[in-house]
Amino acid sequence: MTSADLLVDAFSRVRKTVYDAAEGLRPDQLAFQPEPRANSIAWLVWHLTRIQDDHIADLADTEQAWISDGWVERFGFPFDPMATGYGHGAEEVAEVRVDSVDLLTGYYDAVHVRTTGFVAALTDDDLPRIVDKSWDPPVTLAVRLVSVISDNLQHAGQAMYLRGMIERGAA
Fold first, then answer.
1. Per-residue pLDDT tens for 53-72?
2. CB neighbours (10 Å) of residue 158?
3. In 3D, which of 147, 160, 126, 154 has the Cα closest to residue 54?
4. N or C terminus of the chain with fewer C-beta within 10 Å?
């Protein structure tokens, strides 16, 4: 197994967890918040997808699918088009509502295809490339990819926890 294969596998595990958390839920269930300051599945999946889209587009030097593929218009959220959810408070989280799970998973899949295409083409020689000099030590491509995977899996796990609450009658 190559490093590229490992990265594709890791991002595919994120995809599986996203689907396990969201698939088959109604819009009201996707928007369920156990309390007003808590995240919903809709927000968590949107946010983790936005982070992946933002970071991978930056690494690949491409435009984000959110903008170039028209997802920003399809979602119609009242946020700056470049918003990723980072720093959102309770009011913004509550604004993340979707008409169907297909919208969430459609955007996720568009980003996943871009992500896996990018990481599948990487070689071990690419991974030490410095991508962010604002940190000490500077951030390499490998570290940034692991960071995205870690963030995505944490949020997907939170979405799974909420799904468990929903399935047990909390929503």
1. 999 999 999 999 999 999 99
2. 17
3. 147
4. N
pLDDT at 171: 72
CB atoms within 10 A of CB 105: 18
88-103 pLDDT, tens digit per residue, is 999 999 999 999 999 9
What global pTM score does this model have?
0.96
Distance CA 91, CA 10 (A): 32
